Amino acid sequence: MSGSEKIKAKAEQFVGKTVRKTAHVLGNKTTEAKGSALEARGKAREVKERGKGHFKH
Q1: Cβ distance 34 to 15 under 8 Å?
Q2: Long-range own/partner contacts, residues 7-15 (CB < 8 A, 24 or more apart)
Q3: What is the DSSP annotation of the chain?
Q4: pLDDT digits (tens, 9 = 90+) for 4-13
Q5: Residues of the chain with pLDDT > 90: what percent?
Q6: How much is the pTM?
Q7: CB 3.0 to 4.6 Å from 45: which of 9, 25, 30, 55, for a disulfide?
């Protein structure tokens, strides 16, 4: 996993989780869903990059 992609993945996960939890506390379901989507996108990016590493030999 390249360094920049790893940072992007972790940043998306962190921001998504923060947005999701804050929106949940405030009762904003739309923003909560957007935070969940951002967090999921970060996790997907991380899985994709990990998969690329398995095929490089």
Answers
A1: no
A2: 8/42, 8/45, 9/42, 9/43, 9/45, 9/46, 9/49, 10/42, 10/46, 11/42, 12/38, 12/39, 12/41, 12/42, 12/45, 13/39, 13/42, 13/43, 13/46, 14/42, 15/42
A3: --HHHHHHHHHHHHHHHHHHHHHHHHT-HHHHHHHHHHHHHHHHHHHHHHHHHHH--
A4: 888 999 999 9
A5: 67
A6: 0.82
A7: 9
